[in-house]
Amino acid sequence: MPPAPPRPPPEGPLAGPSPARADAAGGPAGALARAARDLARLVVPLECAGCGQVDVALCTPCLARLTGPVWRCEAAAPRLDRVGRAPLPVWTLAPYTGEVRELVVAWKDRGRVDLTPVLTAALAGAGGQVAAVLRAAGLPGAAGSLQVVPAPSSAVARRRRGADLVGALAVGVARGCTEAGLPARAAAVLVQRRGAHDQVGLTARARRTNLRGRVRWRRGVPLPPPGHPVLLVDDVLTTGATLATCDDAVRAAGARVVAAITLAATPPPGHGRVEDVRRQGYGGANAG
Ligand SMILES: [Zn+2]
């Protein structure tokens, strides 16, 4: 068997630096920057996660859908309306439709984690608005601070996404509340029990079954003082099953959920225009 022929020198964009070629392209640094840019476009074409506009991660009109006034959306969530309990007030930033739905799906399930800082900032804005309402209601009172708790993701979802995305939103909410004069801190104190599956793709009934009793206080984390106020955070309000299950777990730990904030909320059937929803909320429960 003859010896293998010598390997040719590397060629193409992944080759090592070649002074002659780099100089011809305007200096090594310039060439590298251009290559990195071209490679980035090749691998991840930069486009708005909401509407697909090219060369921008999130365009101004899509961002504006997440930076307006918050409104109440709990009336559209059938699983939150439980016999014998006052409905949990839930504030949200946007109807889960159109561009907002696109960008949330891109963020959660298509690897667009580059959106996390901007979504966290949007939730900080929401937190600041809700803080004003909670302060008017006398919170945090003797508790001294509000605990901001993200709805827990399943271990499968966290692994797939490589991060606790809802946890990042909770950090934003806590920052917004604190900056608005309501001391708050985020803490991922709830976890899903083993056996709870990722909620993606489940029907409303399956979500209910999947989550019932499956959320609990995290082991090793001290229980809160009795009645300590908790603000829940989730990405999207759908049926309300997730928030209701988190509410149960917080109550079982002795604290009380005073409200919840979500990035977006699924509209009820036949909802009106976005402008009307923002003014009236889902079911006319808007706190203004
Ligand atoms: Zn856009």
What are the key terms here?
288 residues, alpha/beta, Rossmann fold, 6-stranded mixed β-sheet, binds zinc ion
Q: Any overview of this molecule?
A:
- The protein is α/β, with parallel strands linked by helices.
- The protein is built from ten helices and eight strands.
- The strands form two sheets. The chain has a six-stranded mixed sheet with strand order 1-2-8-7-3-4, sandwiched between helices.
- Helix 9 (241-252) links the parallel strand 7 and strand 8.
- The model is unreliable at 6-25 and 284-288 (pLDDT under 50).
- The protein binds zinc ion.
- The site of zinc ion has 8 residues, from helix 3.
Structure ligands: zinc ion
The share of residues in helices is 25-40%
- Main beta sheet strand tally, sense and closure: 6 strands, mixed
CATH class type: Alpha Beta
**CA gyration radius, whole angstroms:** 23 Å
SSE-based structural type: alpha/beta
Give the overall pLDDT as a whole number.
82
How far is the N terminus from the C terminus?
83 Å
Strand order of the largest sheet: 1-2-8-7-3-4
Q: How many domains?
A: 1
Number of helices: 10
CATH fold type? Rossmann fold
Q: Strand share of the residues?
A: 5-15%
What order do the helices and strands follow? HHHEEHHEHHEEHEEHEH
Report the count of strand segments: 8
Low-confidence stretches: 6-25, 284-288
* Overall shape: globular
